[in-house]
Structures are given as C-alpha cells and as structure tokens.
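debug: dumping io for the single-chain case to check the tokenizer round-trip. Nothing else runs in this session.
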Amino acid sequence: MLGNNRLSLMPGFPCRGAARLLSNKNHFRNIDLASTSRSPTGTLRAHLTGDQPELHRISRALLPLLLTVPVWVSASSAGPLGPVPSAAAPGGARLDAAAMVSARTTAARAEQRLPDLWANRDDELQRGLERLLAAQGLSTAASGGRLAVVVADITEPGAPRVASVNGDRMMYAASLPKIAILLGAMDAMQRGRAVPDAAVERDIEQMIRYSSNSAATRVLEWVGRDRLLALLQSPRLRLYDPAHNGGLWVGKDYGGSPAYSRDPIGNLSHGATAMQVARLFQLLEGGQLLDAEHSARMKSVLGDPGIRHKFVKGLESRPGATVYRKSGTWQQFHADGALVESGGRKLVLVGLAEDPRGGEWLAGMAAPLHDLALGMTREASRVARHEPN
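debug: decoded output
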C-alpha cells in the first residue's frame, strides 16, 4: 500500500527477488527499509519510507513480482502525487503498481497443490464416457489399447471431475508433444534464461497453431533438449512420471534426425499419456504451471487454432465453446488435447488414437464429450447446436 510517503508490502508478497531488489541501493537511494521479516513460507513483510518519487519508482519495479503468483489485489492509495500508474495484467485485468497483496490468499494459493486427477474419478462421468464410446463403436479400439480418452471438468479447481479410458497408456502422440516444447519456451522466458527475438516468437506460433515441424525443431534447440526433458520430469511438474506409466516426452526433434532420447517406458520419441496431457491443462489453468504472465501467453498461443480438424472440427457445432489446443497426426497416429471454455465451465478433452480413422474418431466424439462433461440433456444439446425443433 502506498501513501503518506510509506510503502507497505504485506505478508504474502513473493520475497524471492523482492528482498534483493529492496536492498539494492544502486536502484533506490532515498528509501529506508524500516522493517522487514520473512515467514517460514517464504513470504515477505516490509515497510519502506522515503520520497514519493522513489516510492512510485519502486512500486513500478515490483510490479512484475506481483505477476509471479496468483494474488488478490486491492486498489492502491493515492499519495500527494496522485494515483500510481497502473499496468495491464494478462487477460485485460488491471493491477495497480502500489497494491496491497492479500497475505492469506497468496500464502494459501502458493502452498496448495491442485487435486490429483487420478484420485478424482467421477463415477457418473465414467459411465457416461464408456457409454459414449460404445455408442460410437469404439469400445473394441479402447479395449485393444488403440484409443485413450480423458474428459475432465476442472471448473472448480479443488474438485475436478474426471473420467478416462486407457488414461495411463503411453502412446505415440505425433505433434501433440509440441505443447511440451511450448511449455519449455515459456519456462525459459519466465526464468529470464532466454529472451526470444521476433523469429523465435514467430516460430513458437507456427509450431503450435500450424504444427510446423521446422519451427518446432528450432524452438526445441532454443529451449534445449536436455533442459526440456529435465523440466518434464521435474519433481514440481512430474509431467513424465514412471509412477503413472510416463507422460509427455520429447526425445527427438521434428526433422529428419534420429531420436536422441527415447522414453524409458514406451521407447517412444514423441509420446504422451492422456492423463498427463490433461494434467498439463489443469496446471496451466490452475496457475501452477507458470506465472500469471506466461500462463496468459501460453494460452494465447494455444488459442485460435490454425488447423481445424479433430476436436476443433467436432466442436464447431458448439459455437459458444472457446478452444485452446494442440493436435498431432502421423500416419495412423492421431492425437488431440484441448482446454475448452464453454457455458461458464472449463473442460479438458484428450484423445490419442492409433488407427487410420483416428482423426474421424476424435472429431466425432468432441461434441458428445463436451455435452457429457456439461451434463447436457438431449434438449440442451439441440439448443446448443441451434437446431430447430
């Protein structure tokens, strides 16, 4: 809170970097750090006094740190110089630079882990998924291990509803794991390890929206092969986890070079399990994959798909649905993973198929999966399609 020549950072402000910044007299010469303390959870309480211009300047400098954790922000106080300039947050929200961060909310969100998707199977949703696959003639493909599907409603972060068939089956996923390269790129930017130029930014968009193999190969080299595999297997993310039969894996570029590191479980160069793809979307939407700024950037890249097949094609009959997705196709292998925002709800759909007709399977199940997750009746489904009586 800024006012009366005093800046107060309440408990819950992220102290990593903040304490360093506050103590740097090369940046702030007319500031006195009246008091500071850190809690066991790594949050910071600080009170600073000094000239209003310096306090305004430090508020602006601390703004990026406000974007590194999910926070509730209240309006700032106006000092003698008037309100502190505001900055636009991702998604169009406004954050005041001199804002009081809610201690309780920030600390709880920073420490709270999102629920385990595996432990949140919804029996009704599961029965509906199995009936849906049977109705579409896909039960044999599922029982034969040639089809994996996950549908989840993650609208309530603390109470997801999940159904899956072959959710932990490691399958070749073609270009879908390019979403992991996107994550690696955003993580590198967030950590300040690499700054993308215009060519890298263009490659990132081409890699996701149009599934360019040459762009994906360049972005992978920019991120670093070993760094990406380390990130996917990190204890924080566990997007490739032997305890769940693997997950997202990128062990080959998307050019003609041979695989440099096949996954230890399925011996795949570009692999995924449907559940781990669903987890990636859960972590992204729950703010535990990246910070707020880079989460918004990642979602922006995943939005407005340039290839309108599979789930995107199937959801064209649901005009109210907004889709963030990455798909993959190679020979008989078809894959799609999507975060779908529809009717005020947030859904995750993932499908992996090994069959020449796999793309048609995924397109055909997209709208029924959407309706199933929303609990839509046949009448509600008809209205969503804008069909006449």
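debug: round-trip ok. The domain at 117-384 is CATH 3.40.710.10 (Beta-lactamase).
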